[in-house]
Amino acid sequence: MSRITGLSTADVRFPTSLMLDGSDAMNPDPDYSAAYLRVDTDADDGLTGHGFVFTIGRGNDVQVAAIDALAQHLTGQDVEALLADMGGTWRSLVHDSQLRWLGPEKGVMHMAIGAAVTALWDLKAKRTGQPLWRLLAAMSPEELVDLVDFRYLSDALTRDEALAILRAAEPGRAEREAALVREGYPAYTTTPGWLGYDDEKLARLCREAVAEGFTQIKLKVGADLADDVRRLKLAREAVGPGIRIAVDANQRWDVADAIAWVTALAPFDLAWVEEPTSPDDVLGHAAISRGIAPIPVATGEHMANRVMFKQFLQADALQVLQLDATRVAGVNENIAILLLAAKFGVPVCPHAGGVGLCEAVQHIAMFDFVAVSGTREGRLIEFVDHLHEHFVTPVEVGDGRYRTPLAPGAGTEMLAASLAEYTVGAHG
Amino acid sequence: MSRITGLSTADVRFPTSLMLDGSDAMNPDPDYSAAYLRVDTDADDGLTGHGFVFTIGRGNDVQVAAIDALAQHLTGQDVEALLADMGGTWRSLVHDSQLRWLGPEKGVMHMAIGAAVTALWDLKAKRTGQPLWRLLAAMSPEELVDLVDFRYLSDALTRDEALAILRAAEPGRAEREAALVREGYPAYTTTPGWLGYDDEKLARLCREAVAEGFTQIKLKVGADLADDVRRLKLAREAVGPGIRIAVDANQRWDVADAIAWVTALAPFDLAWVEEPTSPDDVLGHAAISRGIAPIPVATGEHMANRVMFKQFLQADALQVLQLDATRVAGVNENIAILLLAAKFGVPVCPHAGGVGLCEAVQHIAMFDFVAVSGTREGRLIEFVDHLHEHFVTPVEVGDGRYRTPLAPGAGTEMLAASLAEYTVGAHG
């Protein structure tokens, strides 16, 4: 038996605002950051579990403080017991009534729990010598539904319905796993489209994206309509008619604005419209979906929890579901969201970029393909070519696809040298 | 001109779990706490602004850290400029893109901004020598709408519609203010109904509530149906048929459970059913509202922001709106919520209790009566008789009514002696 000996946290910040990487209509100057966590144990294997919350700068210290607050729940605990019942472990954190009051199940405290849960999954995957996606994809339907908290979901998805979805996907698991390892998973790139880039850089990066094998790119929009029209025209000319172009407004609009603005951009053949308005606005997104159909609405990266995803699906308020690795409470809640998406037949195209989101979320999408939805059709993982060099197992993307990770773990471990260099307030 | 010289914060915790005060179906052992803030200036008047976030124990330190993170926005700022444009001040905090990422507009960071905004309102009210409710009620409709951020609201409430609501209420302001000072504002009491109290204590406190002049009490339910039936029967016998009894499930149920459970309790003549399920579940509450009509659904104390309130009103998912003084981003966002409620014709019965929530929220309800809805009809402020002795201007409740506060400020200042005694980790 081994015990958790402690959590070590770090306030990691990269000065990305200097280059306007990541600039959009709502976030003009992000400094990509991670509230980072390492879980240590007294086991002889020397393995550690790593997790983080992605933030864009100020407040990363608050996020670190929230992760620190979980030490009292985890330090001293029996590691094997925690890892053997990850559903119970998740509930013991999320259902703590006093911590729950700080959300409930949303914002800083919920994301902190996500970092801890993911760090435990990282540890569990390393202990079994498997990449997280394969560890999950080897679990039985019964074991998988035990990971999910169906509280507040039962009007849309019951445990039995989830079991049926997972059982229906069981027969083809082995073939899909082989295909995944052979072919990887499709990606799209947001690298060309940041709002702070000038036209020359935009066009050049669009051409490069096509040359690199991507079949979809994404542009940030929503600050100025005339600029958006000019940039979309440039991008469409640069990539040609065969490449899909999605646009992302990063919550800039109200409902009527969104419909009018997207209607003006529709001639450029939009793959989807992302985050048109507040991520809390189920009814607003439903109205926008009706107003801009057949252009799909994509959202999810800022959606607080499974209850919000449930409603967006119930109301047909999104047609592309973009879960995020660190916004909800970790791997378990993302499995709940995958099951909801499968129930409603909506494709999951995860949000990524930031710090380590690509590394983390690829495991969720690949698990989905092998064991939940059973398809890659209409699904792509976002890719942004930033900051991968700071991770122990950086993503490998080529020919417009994520190569399937085979190293043990959840992909969430940063290099010690990067932690040392970019941790704020650390000595040494 | 004066400047903010600094924020002082305190992690204040009361050991209420020892008495099971505040126990309910989701929160068995709360330790009522406040993440407390004092804003100091270099003005000669020596006045300070006070605000806080109510929490129930663990994690209060995280909430304090979030308030501390606002020091960089406020320290050194021109006080007169901040207070003269409280709408702009609110936006400068809530729209900070990096802090916003931590919500957006929800959870720990959003509540921290609420504490800061309320502390500034407390300071402004003290500088004008007025209680907050009267300061607000003396502002013009134009000044009031300038306090509100209509982003994400315009599909339900525009600035012009809000102006029309406020202008329609202008003529009777003086008479209503006089009536308010003379008569106070109706209250209901939750004191009898905590889940941890035994039957004898429940019945005794019910009788006392009636003797004290309350016309409505509230009971916690949702842990065990047989217990709820027994307790409601006891309570109904103790208060008689003329007193309204509301029940509060504190988010315990899924949609179908809620409808079945409430149907079983309906014979006891329920005034409303509070928080039947997740506070994020607009569609779930709408289904419950349809399922238990004509019994009203009441919710709001855990609703993250104005976008959620907008949708609950659009979907007829609540029939009694329970805003909370410290859950959303302070006084400004609560004014937005009052305007939404007025637009949809729904009564506001604020959540209170906890630490200082009665002291703070009475100002919002009283301002609503004088200048927004123009009525007290069907409206009550929750009252719980706990912890008032720690405030400089504690509420005065008698004959089932809040006495109208006349002391300058927002009611949010705690006694220095209480802060010294209950601050965790403070020396001396």
UniProtKB/TrEMBL annotation, chains A, B:
What SUPFAM superfamilies does the record tag this protein with?
Enolase C-terminal domain-like (SSF51604), Enolase N-terminal domain-like (SSF54826)
Residues in Mandelate racemase/muconate lactonizing enzyme C-terminal domain copies: 199-295
Q: Which domain of life is it from?
A: Bacteria
Q: Which PROSITE patterns match?
A: MR_MLE_2 (PS00909)
E.C. number, please? 4.2.1.68
Q: Which UniProt keywords apply?
A: Lyase, Magnesium, Metal-binding
Record carries keyword Magnesium: yes
Which cofactors does the annotated protein need, by name?
Mg(2+)
A single Pfam family, by name? MR_MLE_N
* Reactions it catalyzes: L-fuconate = 2-dehydro-3-deoxy-L-fuconate + H2O
Protein's name according to its UniProt entry: L-fuconate dehydratase
**Annotated source species:** Pseudonocardia humida
